[in-house]
Amino acid sequence: MQEKELEKQFSEICEILATINNRNDIYSFLRDLLSKNEILEFSNRFEVAKMLDDKISYVNIEGKTGMSSTTIARISKFLNWENKWYKNAIELLKAISKKHHEGHHSW
User: Fold this and answer.
1) Which terminal residue of the chain has fewer beta carbons within 10 Å of its beta carbon, N or C?
2) What is the domain range of residue 50?
3) Distances in Å between the alpha carbon of 33 and those of 26, 84, 90, 107?
């Protein structure tokens, strides 16, 4: 499937997610949409991105997550060279965490 076709196929879901401003509602929608294993896969990929951002080695990441070096390399590619939304998401998470530590709760 070409990238534009993939984006078009997924666009309605992106629109829905962009309008939901409640963490529990987002989780409920994704839980209906995805299997438990698919949710775990998403979560694990993001954990790998955070570990790569923290400069943890592939070997240590493989040991901690069970992800293959091929998957880790793909995540690294997107973290560092492609869309960079892993990097953007990590920065957003850091900003959210900072707000929570300062006593401002956005959710």
Assistant:
1) N
2) 36-107
3) 10, 25, 24, 22
Q: Residue 43 and residue 100: Cα distance in Å, rounded? A: 21
23 and 42 belong to one structural domain: no
Is 4 within 8 Å of 17 (Cβ atoms)?
no
pTM attached to this predicted model: 0.79
Indicate if the pLDDT at residue 69 is higher than 80. yes
Residue (of 101, 105, 49) closest to 77 by Cα position? 49
Q: Which residue has the tokens 């694990």?
A: 44
Residues 96 and 54 in one domain: yes
Distance CA 49, CA 17 (A): 21
Q: Are residues 79 and 56 in the same domain?
A: yes
38-47's contacts with Cβ under 8 Å and 24+ in sequence apart are 45/71, 45/75, 46/86, 46/89
